[in-house]
Write a structure and sequence with these properties.
- The chain has 16 helices and twelve strands.
- It has 402 residues and is α/β, with parallel strands linked by helices.
- The N terminus is likely disordered.
- It comes from Caballeronia sordidicola.
Length: 402
């Protein structure tokens, strides 16, 4: 199965066909039970949470697996959250370990449960998303989270199966943890085709309709400006400040940047706001939006930008491509793997001049925008749920039969 290559012609057409039960579940008639441990309930809105929920949903729809998801009914960084994570979750894992075939931990934060599940006689699969790169964390919250994950890294090799989102993440994991390569399986994010709620016949008409809806619902006035969109939390590794520095250099009055996502690092958000105010950059911050409105944001945009320095996969660039929005993104291994040549890359993501040049070259070249739009939509086909689910199911069956 091709997860990380450009597809075209007959291959692309084949991917758009649903996977039958027989193809998704080869050589098995049983009904394995999987219990999927998530994080705090709002985590379902994060990229990591969406990955697990999408995979669990695909397994339910396309296979005969009996999949149950459990989450923590609490906000992040609260006493209730940590009480459930470190006390109630282990107790629940012990309870279900013997009655289910496999427990899946939705991210590396839950690695501490691996030996507990084994002691209870169960099997465990860990979803590992990314290794934090030194120097790409700033502020107490980011640094504490990084230290916490680093502390439990030695437990990752003890899992019965480790799922990563891309080849680059697998290589990073092998460099920091002694995981047996045969236990690592690459399973990218699956994407429902839900980010294109409008189909007005042409990209221009679709953008106009999406902008009208956002103005009516959220009061966001874009007009005829060239809209740059970025979705995700404000963290140091997301490198958002560099994009603002690039826009300050461009000083184009026909551009507006829309940032959708929470300020995980408030210092980073304030730096961006201060620079925007001082440089006259048109910018709109949306803390959080509904799934429906997110589709309108993608379709209202002319260009999607991701300046991130490090990702486990990077959902938003594929969401943008699925919505028909051309992408400019960092030239990093994970994006080269997931998008190939279907996006415009910036070789040095830390250099504002590179972003300014890329933005101008795409904004002033409608034919290139049309080309990247079509390439992106074709590339996104390989991440449809039934395609990803077939590979995931084979990996889980191998783990269960081991």
């Amino acid at each position: 199965m091709k997860f990380f290559s450009m597809l075209s012609g007959r291959e692309a057409d084949d991917l758009d066909k649903p996977v039958s039960q027989e193809r998704a579940v080869p050589n098995t008639r049983d009904n394995p039970r999987i219990v999927w441990f998530m994080g705090p309930r709002p985590s379902s809105l994060t990229g990591v949470g969406q990955h697990s929920l999408a995979l669990a949903g695909a397994l339910k729809k396309y296979t005969n697996f009996n999949v149950e998801t459990v989450d923590i009914d609490a906000q992040p960084r609260t006493f209730k959250r940590y009480w459930h994570q470190f006390v109630m979750y282990p107790l629940h894992a012990i309870h279900v370990a013997r009655s289910c075939d496999l427990i899946i931990l939705y991210q590396e934060d839950l690695s501490f449960m691996i030996p507990i599940i084994h002691l209870a006689g169960g099997r465990v699969c860990l979803m590992f998303h990314h290794v934090q790169v030194p120097g790409q964390a700033r502020g107490i919250v980011e640094k504490v989270k990084g230290f916490y994950v680093q502390m439990f890294l030695p437990l990752a090799p003890k899992a019965d199966l480790v799922l990563v989102e891309c080849d680059a993440a697998a290589k990073d994991l092998l460099e920091v943890a002694a995981v047996k390569p045969e236990l690592i399986q690459i399973v990218p994010c699956p994407f429902e085709d839900k980010y294109s709620p409008l189909d007005a016949g042409s990209p221009r008409e679709t953008r106009a309709q999406a902008r009208a809806i956002l103005e009516q619902r959220l009061g966001l006035q874009i007009g005829d400006a060239l809209m740059l969109l970025n979705v995700g939390s404000d963290e140091t590794r997301k490198n958002n400040l560099t994009v603002f520095q690039a826009l300050a250099k461009l000083a184009r009055k026909d551009l507006i940047l829309v940032r959708v996502g929470k300020a995980f690092n408030t210092a980073n958000r304030m730096e961006c706001k201060t620079l925007a105010s001082a440089s006259g950059i048109r910018v709109h911050f949306a803390e959080s939006v509904s799934e429906e409105d997110l589709g309108y944001f993608y379709q209202a945009a002319d260009i999607y930008i991701s300046a991130t320095l490090h990702e486990g996969f990077g959902r938003t660039v594929i969401e943008a491509q699925m919505a028909g929005t051309p992408v400019i993104a960092s030239d990093i291994p994970v994006y080269k793997g997931s998008m190939g040549d279907s996006y415009l890359s910036v070789s040095d993501p830390t250099n504002p001049d590179g972003w300014a040049k890329a933005i101008s070259s795409l904004a002033d070249n409608p034919s290139l925008m049309d080309e990247l739009r079509e390439r992106g939509k074709t590339n996104a086909l390989q991440y449809l749920p039934h395609v990803v689910c077939a590979g995931l199911h084979r990996s889980l069956l191998q783990a269960l039969r081991a």
